[in-house]
Each structure stands twice: as C-alpha cells, then as structure tokens.
Specification:
With 258 residues, the protein is an alpha/beta fold. The chain has a single domain, classed as Carbon-nitrogen hydrolase (Nitrilase/N-carbamoyl-D-aminoacid amidohydrolase, 4-Layer Sandwich). Helices cover 26% and strands 28% of the residues. Strands 1, 2, 3, 4, 5, 6 and 15 form a seven-stranded mixed beta sheet that branches. It has a six-stranded mixed beta sheet with strand order 7-8-9-10-13-14. The chain has a two-stranded antiparallel ribbon with strand order 11-12.
C-alpha cells in the first residue's frame, strides 16, 4: 500500500572524541527522541563515529536494530567505515521497521583521504520500505546530478543523504540539496555532524510545496540552526512529490541527451 504521508527525521550527532560508546549512546538517544515524536524514517550523518580506529571496533548496527524494532521505525544508521566481505567501505546501513538489516549503500564518490581508506561503491540501490521506496546518497555523492536522477527514474520516493560538511561548505551543500530536490521533484533528508569549530551542523531537510495558483514548485527547507546536537522532523506529502515528478519527467526528452 502506497503511503500518503511520511514523517522523516534527521539527527545531528556530536561525536565524542575517543569515546565511541558515548557517541553511539548519544546517537541512539537522539534517534529514540525522533521515534517518540512519530518519525517513520530516521537518518544519522556521515562519519558520526570517532575514527581513531578504522573500521570502528564497536558495531552500532545492533543498537539501531533494537530501536527500529521497538518503535517500528526505519533507520539509516548514517555512514561510517565498515568491513564487509573482507573489504573496507564507507557504508550506510539501512534497517527496516522490523529491525532487520535490509542492506547497505556504499559511498560511490569517495572524498579526499577516503580514497586511501575504502573501496568505492558502484551501484545505487532502491530500498523497498513500508509503502514507499528510498535511495541513499552519502555526502559527496549528492554533488553529482546523475545519482539523484537515477534514484528518481528508478522509483525512489525519498533520498537520504548522511553527510559531514565543514563550516565553509555548508551553503554550497544546502544549494546542492535544494537543486537535487527541485530537479528531481524528490524530498532529501540530509543530517550533518556537529563537531565545532570545523563542523557546525546545519542539518537540513528539503521538500517541496506547490503554488496553488501558478502551480510552481518551491523548496521547503528545514534546518537545525542551534549550535548543538539535535533533531528535525518534517511531514512529507509523498503523493504531491510523486505527482510533481511525473509531470516534470513527462517533459523529458532522453533522445536528445546523448
């Protein structure tokens, strides 16, 4: 059954240096607050775990599996270095509302030192959830237009974008998020870490509204403005986005895009 409304939450975590247990505890508590407020899907940032050891010696996934099962909520557990099948990836695990690990999206466009530490992914998976479909872009992946378009063409209703953006990059990052949402008529949930002075948060959710008279789609942007860890939630009208996307994509001319 297709959903009409989806309550999405983005979690802004403050990593505790050299204290992975405390950081995981904070992430789980913040996600729990979002679940208590009625979130259907929750997303954490990229690189929200302390990274003194790569990959992390403590697996956060079971903690979120328990939370997802207890509240019946889907959780994208951010993105972090993870060893899978003998190889280190920058991995974004997704856990469904029954607490089952559905799979992982591996970051495709590795950034800076990540290229030396992990293997890049090469696919964009669409995950079937409770009456809707989701895709995951990990941070730098959103800078490129193709991944978002692939998700939109392959039936995703929403994109989750766990990120770690430095202070000077916040404004361009939010512009990327807004453009991807507009050009694909798709909501984007993008949490960022809070680790001052270099990382100042600015966690953002971009969805769309439509001018009732002129029928123009406008971005609806929600951002965490306080200098701290925290959460934001947004109620997303999935049928509206699907209708806007169908109308826009009907005017595409792929035969000219060679």
């Amino acid at each position: 059954m297709t959903r009409n409304k989806l309550i999405a939450a983005a979690v802004q975590v403050r990593p505790v240096s050299r204290a992975i247990d405390k950081t995981i505890d904070q992430g789980v508590k913040l996600a729990g607050r979002a679940a208590e407020r009625g979130a259907d899907i929750i997303c954490l940032p990229e690189h929200w775990l302390p990274e003194e050891i790569i990959p992390t010696p403590v697996d956060p996934i079971p903690y979120f599996q328990s939370l997802a099962k207890d509240y019946g909520v889907t959780i994208v557990a951010g993105a972090f270095f993870e060893r899978v099948k003998g190889q280190v990836w920058l991995s974004s695990p997704i856990i469904n509302s029954k607490g089952r690990l559905l799979g992982r999206q591996f970051k495709v466009h590795l950034f800076w030192r990540e290229k030396k530490l992990a293997k890049p992914g090469d696919t964009y998976q669409v995950f079937k959830l409770d009456g809707y479909k989701a895709g995951i872009l990990v941070c730098y992946d959103v800078d490129f237009p193709e991944p978002s378009r692939i998700y939109a063409l392959n039936g995703a209703d929403i994109i989750l974008c766990p990120s770690r953006i430095i202070k000077g990059g916040n404004r361009p990052w939010q512009q990327y998020l807004t453009v991807r949402a507009l050009e694909n008529r798709i909501p984007i949930i993008a949490p960022n870490v809070y680790a001052p002075p270099l990382f100042i948060g600015g966690t953002t959710i971009v969805s769309l509204r439509q001018d009732p008279v002129r029928k123009i789609a406008h971005p609806r942007i929600r951002t965490i403005t306080q200098q701290s860890e925290g959460i934001i939630l947004e109620s997303i009208d999935l049928p509206l986005h699907n209708r806007l996307r169908k109308l826009r994509f009907a005017d595409r001319r792929p035969e000219t895009y060679q």
